[in-house]
From TrEMBL:
<comment type="similarity">
    <text>Belongs to the cytochrome b560 family.</text>
</comment>
<keyword id="KW-1133">Transmembrane helix</keyword>
<dbReference type="InterPro" id="IPR018495">
    <property type="entry name" value="Succ_DH_cyt_bsu_CS"/>
</dbReference>
<feature type="transmembrane region" description="Helical">
    <location>
        <begin position="25"/>
        <end position="49"/>
    </location>
</feature>
<keyword id="KW-0408">Iron</keyword>
<dbReference type="GO" id="GO:0016020">
    <property type="term" value="C:membrane"/>
</dbReference>
<dbReference type="InterPro" id="IPR034804">
    <property type="entry name" value="SQR/QFR_C/D"/>
</dbReference>
<keyword id="KW-0812">Transmembrane</keyword>
<protein>
    <recommendedName>
        <fullName>Succinate dehydrogenase cytochrome b556 subunit</fullName>
    </recommendedName>
</protein>
<feature type="transmembrane region" description="Helical">
    <location>
        <begin position="61"/>
        <end position="82"/>
    </location>
</feature>
<keyword id="KW-0349">Heme</keyword>
<comment type="subunit">
    <text>Part of an enzyme complex containing four subunits: a flavoprotein, an iron-sulfur protein, plus two membrane-anchoring proteins, SdhC and SdhD. The complex can form homotrimers.</text>
</comment>
<dbReference type="GO" id="GO:0006099">
    <property type="term" value="P:tricarboxylic acid cycle"/>
</dbReference>
<keyword id="KW-0479">Metal-binding</keyword>
<dbReference type="Pfam" id="PF01127">
    <property type="entry name" value="Sdh_cyt"/>
</dbReference>
<feature type="binding site" description="axial binding residue">
    <location>
        <position position="81"/>
    </location>
    <ligand>
        <name>heme</name>
    </ligand>
</feature>
<keyword id="KW-0472">Membrane</keyword>
Length: 128
């Protein structure tokens, strides 16, 4: 059998887009976002140990629009990844594999992550 006769492996263009596929990709992306956000946490801790001037630099960045957007995105990624991790625990127990159930639990997780993020930021702003 020559290489021209072999069937081609399916790729993303072949698959029909589904919610579960999007949520899986989003889970991986939020995992990467959390890892990158941990660099910010390390910067904050190093600045805290480095003294008032270093900490003031980090605080100024965090208080700016870019810093707040990054922190907001990091917060959302944390809640999304947390909710999806719980969803995966149910899958590990053999529950929720039906397509309708898997799609619905994904929708619920997106709603949870948005509501939890907004609630946390509202509480933080109310306390400030």
């Amino acid at each position: 059998m020559s290489t021209q006769d072999r069937p081609l492996s399916p790729h993303l263009q072949v698959y029909r887009w589904q919610w579960t596929m999007a949520y899986s990709i989003l889970h991986r992306a939020t995992g990467v976002g959390l890892a990158v956000g941990t660099l910010y946490l390390a910067w904050w801790l190093l600045a805290l140990a480095g003294g008032a001037e270093s900490f003031a630099t980090v605080s100024e960045f965090s208080g700016g629009i870019i810093g707040r957007l990054l922190l907001f995105g990091w917060t959302w990624a944390l809640f999304y990844h947390l909710g999806n991790g719980i969803r995966h625990l149910f899958w590990d127990a053999g529950k929720g594999f039906e397509l309708d159930t898997a799609a619905m639990s994904g929708h619920i997780n997106v709603a949870f992550s948005v509501v939890a993020t907004l609630a946390l930021w509202a509480i933080a702003y109310a306390a400030a």
